[in-house]
Amino acid sequence: MSRRDIGTDDPRVHVRPGKGSRPRTKKRPSFAHAVPGMVVAVDRGRFTVAISANCMVQAVKARALGRKGVIVGDWVGLEGDTSGTPDTLARIVTLEERQTVLRRSFDESEVGAREKLIVANATQMLIVVAARDPEPKRGMIDRAIVSALDARVTPLLVVTKTDLDSVPELIADYEAVGIKVFALNRNLYEATAPVPPPVETHPPHPAPHPCAPQLQELHQQLQGEVTVLLGHSGVGKSTLVNALVPGANRATGEVNEVTGKGRHTSTSAVALPIGSQGWLIDTPGVRSFGLAHVDAAGLLRGFTELYAISQDCPRGCAHAADAPDCLLDEHPELALRLASFRSLLSEVPSAY
Ranges for the EngC GTPase domain (predicted)? Predict the structure, then answer.
């Protein structure tokens, strides 16, 4: 039986509009009136954004961002309810270009290993190690320095628990290669009660106790900077944060007597206001710090004193232990640093 043409005037017939009747536009909203702010915490798809010293806004990503990831330290634009009152949500509609990105790799055994972005827009990295309990690991320090310099971030070294061991060789070795080192005796700041002088930018967080001069020097170094803390669990990062930022109330833990390792007390990165226009980003303790995202040339630049010497090496020198005529071998005073460099060199993608 043939189909009967009942015509388009029949009310029972619905005629679909042509697919090409409306050209698709490439215009997108400009979000010119978005409220700027910095992401200070991330928790399961919810973002805490500081839009002023005293206003923290809860927000979610808008669909306009697509698959772009947002991490602590990012500068974003907000629309919606930006009052910061409880049970309100704003939308993150723009993501500013990052000036720096700190990252680490999960596996150094292959090129293209999965990476984790740590923080955005940091200007300093505070590498925290303990003089003892747990023992300082030069390998971790060197990895962190390489990662910082690769991201154009200034590395600093803090040695805690110097009341247990002064570790003069460790301090001297890193000062000799241009790393600023802060040695902190925990007895000077763990039990002190902070005196709350007025702070113009961030009233809830006063300066540290004036009786801790070592802490005062470090506190001054953090002014006007975005500083990320990095270190193994148990080295005293949370205790240090609580001393630098009274009112932070970061949980602290003990070191396991059997394994010599600490347990995680910080479970996610969080940015805390410190002093005048400064931010201190506390991160969870790291068990490993992969460098698969850094090639061999970038690794060498992380060892600044070796890099300077390498400029006179034969063309194409790989700087490995079996490299002929490598000038790095002619400096026995740098033996520890050279051994560390070559150990890492065997784990990162080659650029030579």
Answer: 120-287
